[in-house]
From TrEMBL:
Organism: Bifidobacterium callimiconis
Domain DNA/pantothenate metabolism flavoprotein C-terminal: 6-199
Protein name, UniProt field: Coenzyme A biosynthesis bifunctional protein CoaBC
Function (record text): Catalyzes two steps in the biosynthesis of coenzyme A. In the first step cysteine is conjugated to 4'-phosphopantothenate to form 4-phosphopantothenoylcysteine, in the latter compound is decarboxylated to form 4'-phosphopantotheine.
Protein family membership: In the N-terminal section; belongs to the HFCD (homo-oligomeric flavin containing Cys decarboxylase) superfamily. In the C-terminal section; belongs to the PPC synthetase family.
Source taxon at top rank: Bacteria
Residue numbers binding CTP: D99, K109, P126, D127, I128, L129, F147, K161, K165
Residue span relative to the full protein: 285 to 510 of 525
Region (Phosphopantothenate--cysteine ligase): 11-226
């Protein structure tokens, strides 16, 4: 049995992909299965937290003892997160949110007849993690953890996200690493936290993150570690 050291705390987790409709039969999405986010929600529950899991469409069973909010689009996910964020002591955003959507989904099925090309015009979705970073309480009583999946320049991109999105922790994984990525049961991550010596005005390393490389491990174990 585990010490319930998150007892009395509210933990908010996002998981899974989003689906952005193009027309009544098609959508834009990605390969996220929700495994990492669901493992995080279950780990927090096992540590005694009150957990809200905002989940995009996945085929995983609903975890017991967790408040689950099902969403489809990035904007749905944004609405669910903004409803719950104020009361969250710890927020972990593991969802693979679609960066773009069709501004207006076609009300009828898009037909191929007579077309050899099709141009989709996309508009940016809200960045939920960035919003949370901007809206967290200034007294340090809310902890915000983001994820980053990259295919190159892992640490540089992750360090920039950590700073720009005002995260307290960023979990970075490289899609190209064996044992990392979407449908696997394991992950290989690098955990970045802000360097904690930023109070010293003579210290010019304020953009430097502390970096911890974690070897391949099951997502369930990694969830507990995070
Ligand atoms: O910038 P990027 O999308 O790679 O950042 C990844 C992190 O930001 C993840 O934690 C993801 O859940 C979060 N995110 C978000 N809303 C978006 C895009 C990403 O919360 N629209």
């Amino acid at each position: 049995s585990t010490t319930p050291f998150l007892k009395g705390l509210n933990v908010l987790v996002t998981a899974g992909p989003t689906q952005e409709p193009l027309d009544p039969v098609r959508y834009l999405t990605n390969h996220s299965t929700g495994k990492m986010g669901y493992a995080l929600a279950e780990a927090a529950r096992d540590l005694g937290a009150t957990v809200t899991l905002v989940s995009g469409p996945v085929s995983l069973p609903e975890p017991e003892g967790v408040n689950i909010v099902h969403v489809t689009t990035a904007r749905d996910m944004f609405a669910a997160v903004s409803d719950n964020f104020k009361h969250a002591d710890i927020t972990v955003m593991a969802a693979a949110v679609g960066d773009f959507r069709a501004e207006t989904a076609s009300p009828q099925k898009i037909k191929k007849h007579g077309h050899t090309t099709l141009t989709l015009e996309l508009v940016a979705n809200p960045d939920i993690l960035a919003w949370a970073g901007e809206h967290k309480r200034t007294d340090g009583s809310q902890t915000l953890c983001g994820f980053a999946m990259e295919t190159e320049h892992l640490v540089e991109n992750a360090a920039r996200k950590l700073a720009e999105k005002h995260c307290d922790m960023l979990v970075a994984n490289n899609l190209r690493d064996p044992g990392a990525g979407f449908a696997t049961d394991t992950n290989v991550v690098t955990i970045l936290t802000p360097a904690d010596d930023t109070d010293d005005p003579a210290d010019e390393s304020h953009n430097i993150a502390d970096i911890e490389r974690i070897g391949q491990m099951p997502k369930t174990d990694l969830a507990k570690l995070i």
